[in-house]
From TrEMBL:
It comes from Oncorhynchus kisutch. The gene is ACOT11. One of its GO terms (cellular component) is mitochondrial matrix. Its EC number is 3.1.2.2. PROSITE patterns: HOTDOG_ACOT (PS51770), START (PS50848). Residues 376-570 form the START domain. Residues 18-130, 190-301 form the HotDog ACOT-type domain. Gene3D superfamilies: 3.30.530.20, Hotdog Thioesterase (3.10.129.10). Has an acyl-CoA thioesterase activity with a preference for the long chain fatty acyl-CoA thioesters hexadecanoyl-CoA/palmitoyl-CoA and tetradecanoyl-CoA/myristoyl-CoA which are the main substrates in the mitochondrial beta-oxidation pathway. This is Acyl-coenzyme A thioesterase 11. It is an enzyme of class 3 (hydrolase). It comes from the Eukaryota. One of its GO terms (biological process) is acyl-CoA metabolic process. Keywords: Cytoplasm, Fatty acid metabolism, Hydrolase, Lipid metabolism, Mitochondrion, Phosphoprotein, Repeat, Serine esterase, Transit peptide.
Amino acid sequence: MSRPQDEFAEEGKEVFRNLTEVKKSQIVMPCHANHRQELSVGQLLKWMDSTACLSAERHAGCPCVTASVDDIHFEHTIGVGQVVNIKAKVNRAFNTSMEVGIVVNCEDLFSDSHWRVCQAFATFVTQRTTGGKVQLRPLVPRTQAEQVEHSLAAERRRMRLVHADIMKDLLTNRSAQDLRLEAEKAVPAERTQVESVELVLPPHANHQVNTFGGQIMAWMENVATIAASRLCNAHPTLRSIDMFHFRGPSQVGDRLVLKAIVNNAFKNSMEVGVCAEAYQGEEPLRHINSAFMIFEVCDRDGKPCTLPKIQPEPLEGRRRYQEAIARKKIRLDRKYIISCKQTEVPLSVPWDLSNQVYLSYNNVSALKMLATRNNWVLNSEKNKVSLYTLEQKQVLSFKIEFEADVPAERAFMVLSDLGKRVEWDPNYERCELIRRVDDDDFLYRVVTPSISNQGGMVQDFILLASRRPPCDSGDPYVIALRSVTLPTHPPTEGYNRGEVLCAGFSIMEVSNTISYFNQASPEVLPYISTDIAGLSSSFYSTFCTCSTFLQDNRDNPNPKDQPPSSTLNK
């Protein structure tokens, strides 16, 4: 594999070095390896945490501690003699917390090949020795890559805050699973239980005498591996770690009690739950952290083996068994909706409440990434209404940019109500509000005029609309649109069901500039192709009408206090 390009470099420009960037390179020695002569994941977690902590402290100028770590998927293993290259940098600083992005690559010194091992996002909080938190200064992104991560960090933060609610709702709405397993074919869960105690010594702590988060994760990985081994009577491989939060600190002198048990075994993978609690002397146990780790057992060809079934313990064991099924659903949603590249995500992902947050994240992040592209080409311009195009990997996108003498917040509220779009956009014949998911996300059915390449049939689209106000100054208002599928609204006779890959508005508060983006699908392209070819300028009249519509509605009551409009019967 070839050496990856520097993600902080821009073509034709001098490489910019982020001031918060910290790099660590470490050759893997036998003392770092497991029985397969591969780097222990626990050791890797320690290196990742210390590198990220240094990056966070470089920006904060004061001590920081790990608050949480998002899902980590380990794509490859690292062997003895190979080099681990870890790069960490602050993506965004909020009031008293910051997101640090961590990228781990492996280097083979003999073949000069490089490959990605994993990527992680950790949240750090500031900590004064005298108590209290430090107000962080904003981080100003300099490159296109930094602008993307800075923008997406706000969406990832939003997702972290509702993670527990998603789990709760999924368990509430999920029908009970059949737990009647044949005893002779299932391994009792209690057989996989592991408990171990570690004494926290000075080498395990940071310069604040708090136990390194990475050290706690390494101990947790150790007991989880033992629990997984007891189920399969083999050496398992850790594939991923679910998002987890540190609930309290641990200090030098603590006794750290680590408990692990297999919660559920699926066909080729198992979930191990791990809990870390601390105490000193006669004091009661303090909950430090809980984590859920996913293991596989591979054969000699590297293919996952079929695992034995698990017989959960009564009561608490059954609860953990059910929760593991719910977490598997969440993992699949996060992996295939969030972690995949935009081109790898199916056009119309089935929508339901359990994956709403992840679809909304994908919706907004795709538009933000499209908006930050810096290679747009001006196609035509008329009276300050500009049409830009961007062709990338055989996908054509277009951007229409104009200014409106309307406050950005007001334009945001008006444009986010798709029901009103029929009043200025001739390509919207009807618009039905299917469901108001929450204050920021809505499901619509949009009907558009017939086009020649669809045999004269009208088209309809099932769209998820996600709107986001700025997280802080300098951020745009965002209204993102993408196609989803709903079992209640299948394709109907007489309509061609169209797809929207990525579309929406970005509204800048300072300049009053409004930009409309669309990653043109085959169903969308005919509506704009004559404009791109220079055969018409219908885009100009459409967005002039939009500007006039915004002017006419600038002083109307705030639609934020009203339900979005539906024009299905208009």
